[in-house]
Amino acid sequence: MGAQKLLMPVRGVPMIDRVLDVTRDYETIVVSSPEVAAHIRVRPRMQVILNSKPDLGMAHSFEIANGAAPPEDALLVFLGDKPLVTEALAKTVAQHGVASGADVCFPERDGLGGHPVFFSPRARSRVEILTGDSLQSLRDDPELIKVTVPLDDEGAYVDIDEPADLRTIMNE
C-alpha cells in the first residue's frame, strides 16, 4: 500500500477509525501494531494492546485478544481493513450467534465467509487449534457449532489489501 493502510482515509476517515466507530457499543479490545496504536483515540470501554509481532497475522492477534478477554465472554472479531462494516452488520452477526447457540457465527455470501466473526466462550477455549495466520481453522472446526448468516452487506466482504481496492470504494 506504500503506507500504513489502517491509517489511510476512507471517505475522509482513517480506516481504523471507521471500524472502531462500529464497536463503540461493545467492550472493545484492540490488538494493534505500535504504529497504528499511536493514532487510536482510546475511549471508555476500550483496551488497546500492542502487538509487537503483527507480521504473525490474524491468528496471533486473536490469541492476544483472547487472552485479555474474560473467558466467559463471546468475542466479535472485526478486521481493521474492512472499513465498510456497519453497526447493523455487527449487531446482526452478534444476535444470530447468541440466539442460535452457535460457537461460531459469521456472514456468508455465495460460499464466501465475511466479518465480523462471533466466537463463543466454547470456541475461544479451542484457540490452540489455530494454524497459520488466519482464523479459518477455528472458524471451520468440526467440533464447534457453526452458523452462517446469509447477508449481502458489502461491509462484510470488502477488504482493502491493495491501492486498487481503496480506489474502488472511494469512487462508489
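The above is record 1. Record 2 follows with the same two-line structure.
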Amino acid sequence: MQKPVIIPWKGVWPTIAVDAFIAPNATIIGDVHIGSKASIWFNVVLRADVSYIRVGDRTNIQDGTIVHVSSKNGPTLIGNDVLIGHNAIIHGCTLEEGSFVGMSATVMDHAYVETDAMVAAGALLAPNKRVLKGQLWGGSPARFMRNLRDDELTGMKAGTAGYVTIGEEYRSVIDKIRS
C-alpha cells in the first residue's frame, strides 16, 4: 500500500500527531504541523516551503485540496475544528477555529476567516479580506451574503465530529492493511 509523501524542506520535517489520519497519497512538505485527530484526505498537498503551515486538532482537509503559503512572510494558519471542502485552495491565510471553507473555494493571501464563519463553495476570497464571526461569504470575488443560522453552525460542529470518526476508521483500516 502506498504511503503518504512526507518531505523535509531545508532540513525541516513535517510534524504529524500520531492519531491524525493522513491518506496514503497525501503530500506534506516542510514546516507543517498537523494536530491531534486531524484528517488529511486523498490527493491533498500541504507545501510549506517559503513559510509554515499549522493545522489544528480535529481539522479536516478534504480530497484534492492544496494548502500553500505566501512568499511575502505569509504562513497558513488553520485552527482547531476547521472544515475544508474538496478541491479548495488555501494560500497564506488564517482560518480560525470552527470555520468552514466550502468545496472548490479559494482563500488568498492574508485573508482571514473568523470562528464560526463560512466561505461558500466555489467562492474566491480575495487577499486581505476578513469574514467575520458567524458570516457567510460567497461569489467571485466573495462578498458578505448573510449571517449563518443556528442550525448551520450546529451542522458545522457535527461535520467536524463526523470527520474525526471517519478519519479514525480509515486510519484503522489502513493500519490493518499495512500490518
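Residues 150-178 form the longest helix (29 residues).
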